[in-house]
Amino acid sequence: MKHSPLDQFKIKEIANIQLFGHDVIVTNSALFMIIASFFIILYFTLAFKNKKLVPTRLQLSGELFYNLITDTVNQNVGVKGKKFVPLIFTLFMFIMVCNLFGMIPYGFTVTSHISITFALAMMVFLLVTLLGFILHGFHFFSLFLPAGTPWWLAPLMVLIELFAYLARPVSLSLRLAANMVAGHVLLKVIAGFIVSMAFYLKIFPIPFISVLIGFEIFVAILQAYIFTILSCVYLNDAINLH
Amino acid sequence: MTDNNIEGVKKRIEKIKEEQLSISSKKHASSPIIDIASELVAGVIVGVIVGILLDKLFSSKPLFLILCIILASIAAFRSIWRKYIKIH
Known about the structure:
The complex is a heterodimer of chains A (242) and B (88).
Chain A: E1 13-19, E2 22-27, H1 28-47, H2 57-76, H3 85-101, H4 114-136, H5 154-201, H6 205-239
Antiparallel strand pairs in A: 1-2
Helix pairs in contact in A: 1-2, 1-3, 2-3, 2-6, 3-6, 4-5, 4-6, 5-6
Chain B: H1 3-28, H2 32-58, H3 61-85
């Protein structure tokens, strides 16, 4: 099943390194994450190497990403969220670059695996929970009781809100992974059709698949942005408790 | 400040509010099918996990599992309602 649409998500072993008597296996997933991290470091080092008042194109693109995240944090969390800009920025860049690396031919989409997205979502969830308890103590539990709830409905609402709160990291990770898997599977299936359609329609299917690839790149950036926006919304719940 | 000025400021505030509302509704309107599906699946997964753990703790096998799945499903539907229906 070499041409199965799900073949692209298989994790393959690339190298097995012996480190202090332990097997350290480098998979294609780990390799792409390492490449993505180094790419981000290299990109921002080059972008802000010679800072100018009138920025170069590279510096401007770097500033664009930074402004996007600072504006998002400011709008969703407020002034108190300024401390968390580095975290949210790192999260956004990592997810976006990993998503975009999946669009390169023969690339691997790291974020199509729930284990990766769940780890990222769990990091945000634990941070939000711990921060809530540190800032507000036991008053943080008031998050589970929406304002204006009648007293006789309060016990049920607390339970429902608690489950909604626990489902946050799962839905956050599922959303990203599902979008990535759905997009890539669709792309591969349609690309398979394109080959046979080319016999009858000549070059006409090519613009169609190009538009679809463009849409997939848009989804890759949008999903990274949605992940960061939702992280900001959760962070806002913990910092500015109602 | 004259009444005209106040009216002008009020109109601008209304315009900004409308713009912000349309932005916030666009944020969630990206891929509603996968969004709703993930929300529902996440609810049920959490309900099953919590239910099984509570059943193991109190050795009351199907009771908490059923209760938690029902509660978590309600929570999932509630969060979908809050996200989509309330905005629109």
